[in-house]
Amino acid sequence: MTDNQIEYQLIRSSDLSHEENYERWRIGVSSLFDAVPATDGLDGFRADLSSYNLGHFLIGRSSAVAQRFHRSNELVAATGVDHLLIQLYVSGQCAYNADGGLAKGAAGDIVCFDLSRPMRSHTTDMDIISLILPRAMIRLMPRVIDGLHGARLDGTSTLGILLGEHLMTMAKLAPQLAGPDGKLAADVASVLVSSGLSAAVAAERGTLMDANLQTIQVFIERNLTNPALSTEMIMRQFALSRSALYRLFEPLGGIADYIRERRLKLALLKLASVGTSRGSVAKLAYATGFASENAFSRAFQQYFGLRPSEAIRNAREGIRLKADIGFQESNWMQAWLDKLHAKA
Fold it and tell me: What is the value of pTM for the model shown?
């Protein structure tokens, strides 16, 4: 539905049977998670949702009974989006596993999930505000963004309180944020989310936040597909000695490993775009800056544990899964996510 050019969806448990309520909720969140009630059966199931598509971002508020949520590798491949999900727990708690990182969030905390990666969570009865932003809107260096999956911002910290209050206000004003107001709200949210989550990463994981390093990483990101990208190219660009550049990247595993890792992760995002015909692996290798198909294949298998040809087939299976499970017209969330993807 639309209201002053704002698309929105509402789920009201009071208007539905438990079974109808669960089915509408399950479909509504199916592009984000597989959702299963924490208790057997649907007796007593309740889930309310108000969700808004502001064009530049999605925001909504949900109140529901305890559940288990799972975003599998297959669902990641099927939905094919590259956004971040930021959740403020107004009330309730969650325990989650983000790529092997185990953590808990309490009322007031803000938790971030990278929708290009798998996760699991188990919640109590909850009241949550959820914000979905395209990765391109996060104003942090790529390496820090990669570390945001499962990051938790303490709700009692100064930045936690500021971001939490802002999310509450955005959710309240969402029906009014059409046109330029929505873009302004997105820009403000981007700044606050970036500041808050970078603080969370720095506090919990000790991530390096050096400004010079950030500048070089942005340069690397913009040149990943250029086969000429190398240590020498970066030294010339930034007038750095080899030893200075090596020292700068030593905490990140070294400059060569960093570039290779960024290229491999780019390849993972491009899997579904190269097709499955003969030569697809070579196409993927050259599209991500590798000098040869053999070098790419060895690096890919060593890093991800499977051959790139297998990963390409898996990605195509994900697309077929997307068609098989329908992501039918009633799955409005997928359409919204795809639109954000197009705008990113």
Answer: 0.69
